[in-house]
Specification:
Distance between the termini: 15 Å
Order of helices and strands: EHEHEHHEEEHHHHHEHEHHEEEHEH
Structural class: alpha/beta
Strand order of the largest sheet: 1-2-3-4-7-8-9-12
Radius of gyration: 20 Å
Number of strands: 12
Strand content: 5-15%
Helix content: 40-55%
Shape: globular
Length: about 400
């Protein structure tokens, strides 16, 4: 009885190979069919190609991350029914191939956001950082989102203008590109590498949510859940929604998976335990009012996948991804309640007592600086995090 150790792999275009991953101590892979356009069916043939490749390298495909929920489903456009029908078929095909945990999110347009992908920490490693002031500057003065200033205080706007006036054109370009393209393109983002007019394209995508508030987005999410979860129940598949990252509104878009109140809504909108959670301590930890151990314990029976890392929140509201076991997050306390849940599941006869876990993101360290990797996914930084988390789990499970 233990957590299943996994690492994320982005397919054949990932500079980190399956051979590399096998040497880290991970036994499982978290991946997706990144070559299939969002909204189309994942065929059994295509699923088995990836699965066979993984297994040939001595690993197992433990979790799909992600089977994307399209913007058409989130917006409830005229294409929603067709895309949900395709989603259901993809669930059935994954189940037929023995893959029964699906991580996904319901964040509109923007998946996850950071302003600095190369934040230098004291020991010389690099982390990812979110600056409130830089993001405000981007939103109002670089993206020039219509009515963006309504989302901020007068003081925030003044600070953003001061920063904007000191930035070079290169710095402005890099900030916008990092937020819209660099952190998004490799994870099924709406805007891909090479898009020249990404600011205009992004503004157009945002405008499609002008009439969708939190309640409306929840309504659309509930509709999606109550369409696909019955299929999951029939085929033994668990859906695990990822929290918003960061867990607060951005760019005038609603966020509906950020807090305990959102988790409570989720559990009532579709009570089935197949309607579950990816418990991401890094995303949830970017809000001080999220008490992680308490939150996990309350919704433990719905947790089908774990992303574990620590997020350090600064006094000004900025945050960065710190060491996996940094004291900014009580990872010891969280691991204790996770192990309690593993034991409870085994005792009560649940078959999914070995919850899959991956170290979420990682610092760029040592030879990572010589190796190309997607933002947040260096090889050695994640290996370090995996080893630390595995050691913590073993110590608590066997000796506490």
């Amino acid at each position: 009885m233990n957590l299943t150790k996994t690492l994320r792999w982005f397919g054949d275009n990932d500079a980190i190979t399956l051979t590399d991953i096998r040497q880290t101590g991970a036994t499982g892979i978290v991946t997706a069919l990144h070559h299939i356009p969002n909204g189309e069916v994942w065929s059994v043939e295509e699923i088995l190609k990836i699965k066979s490749n993984i297994e040939t390298n001595g690993l197992s495909w433990e979790v799909v991350e992600s089977l994307p929920v399209t913007e058409e489903i989130k917006k409830a456009s005229h294409l929603r029914e067709a895309h949900i029908t395709n989603y259901k078929q993809s669930i059935k095909n994954l189940a037929a191939c023995g893959i029964k945990t699906i991580c996904y999110n319901f964040m509109p347009v923007l998946d996850w956001a950071r302003t600095n992908l190369q934040y230098a920490i004291e020991n010389g490693a690099e982390a990812m950082y979110f600056s409130t002031n830089q993001f405000t500057t981007f939103d109002i003065f670089i993206l020039k989102r219509p009515n963006a200033e309504l989302s901020y205080t007068v003081k925030q706007i003044e600070k953003a203008k001061e920063l904007f006036d000191t930035m070079t054109e290169e710095e402005k370009e890099r900030l916008g590109y990092n937020i819209i393209v660099k952190t998004q393109s490799f994870i099924d983002g709406a805007i891909k590498e090479g898009e020249r007019n990404y600011l205009n394209v992004f503004n157009n995508l945002l405008s499609e949510y002008d009439d969708i508030d939190k309640n409306k987005l929840r309504e659309n999410f509930s509709y999606f859940l109550n369409e696909v979860i019955p299929v999951c129940e029939e085929y033994g598949v668990n859906m695990a929604v990822h929290p918003d990252d960061p867990p607060f509104p951005l760019l005038g878009l609603p966020r509906i998976m950020s807090s305990e109140e959102d988790f409570e809504w989720l559990s009532k909108a579709c009570p089935s335990l197949n309607n579950g959670i990816t418990f991401c301590s890094g995303s949830l930890g970017a809000r001080k009012d999220n008490k992680l151990s308490e939150l996990f314990k309350k919704y433990a029976e719905r947790v089908h996948f774990l992303h574990l890392r620590s997020t350090k929140i600064l006094d000004n509201g900025d945050f960065f991804e710190t060491e996996h076991l940094d004291e900014s997050v009580d990872m010891v306390g969280l691991m204790k309640v996770i192990i309690e849940e593993l034991k409870r599941r085994k005792k009560t006869g649940r078959l999914d007592f070995n919850i899959p876990m991956r170290p979420d993101h990682g610092h760029k360290i040592l030879d990572d600086f010589k190796r190309k990797a997607n933002p947040g996914y260096p090889l050695l930084g994640r290996l370090k995090g995996l080893a630390e988390l595995a050691g913590l789990e073993r110590g608590i499970r066997d000796f506490v």
